[in-house]
Design a protein that fits this description.
207 residues; alpha+beta; 5 helices; disordered N terminus; 8-stranded antiparallel β-sheet
Length: 207
């Protein structure tokens, strides 16, 4: 009796992530790495530099849900954010999260750090950071209360498409909020409104 020999299955290579997705993640890393590099240099111990009275007064606690979106604190995009943030600096507490819709699609990418900011003019530091990142058309936005500080929003041109972002800075935190390039474009005013609402929810006084 002859045994029927099945032909070998063709080699199936492991599929790679779509090129656009890889480019998106690289863009996230670049944006956050450059932005963080400018700001982290001005973070220091209060006693050493005579920081403002409100320095380090707030902490960052991302809510589990935000405007119908759900918090994601793990996954490839969160890993990309953490890679962009680099090594944690003593005395700081980093934040790297994504807010996704019910289908799991990322709608907001959030990277931040809390600590003791000593810069006397957060607005000037924001302008310097955005310029270093190559952000176009940066505009000043209402930063919200009660922590004050400053907010700027602008667009970064990337190979994957325009990346709209808003950044706020005060004497307790620095946070960047971006809309992934695979989403529909949003206006600065719309993202600024979301950023203010998110700030009000996640920047809370220390106990």
């Amino acid at each position: 009796m002859n045994e029927i020999i099945q032909p070998p299955l063709p080699y199936q290579p492991v599929p790679q992530a779509p090129r656009k997705r890889r480019l998106v993640l690289r863009t996230v890393v670049t944006v956050l790495a450059v932005g963080a590099g400018v700001f982290f240099g001005r973070m220091a111990v209060n006693a050493a530099l005579g920081a403002p009275d409100d320095s380090g007064r707030y902490r960052l606690t991302p809510p589990a849900t935000f405007q119908g979106l759900t918090l994601q604190d793990s996954g490839p995009r969160v890993d990309a954010i953490k890679a962009g943030q680099g090594a944690r600096k003593p005395g700081t507490e980093p934040v790297a999260v994504v807010y996704a819709d019910q289908g799991g699609t990322a709608r907001l990418v959030v990277s931040g750090v809390s600590g003791a900011f000593t810069d006397g003019d957060p607005g000037a530091a924001l302008t310097e950071s955005l310029h270093s990142m190559g952000v176009n058309g940066a505009t000043t936005q209402d930063s919200g209360t009660p922590a004050g500080g400053s907010m700027r929003c602008g667009t970064l041109t990337t190979g994957a498409g325009p990346l709209t972002l808003c950044m706020w800075a005060d004497h307790s935190s620095l946070v960047t909020v971006t809309v992934p390039v695979e989403n529909e474009p949003v206006t600065f005013e719309a993202l600024a409104g979301q950023t203010r609402a998110l700030r009000a929810a996640m920047e809370v006084p220390k106990a």
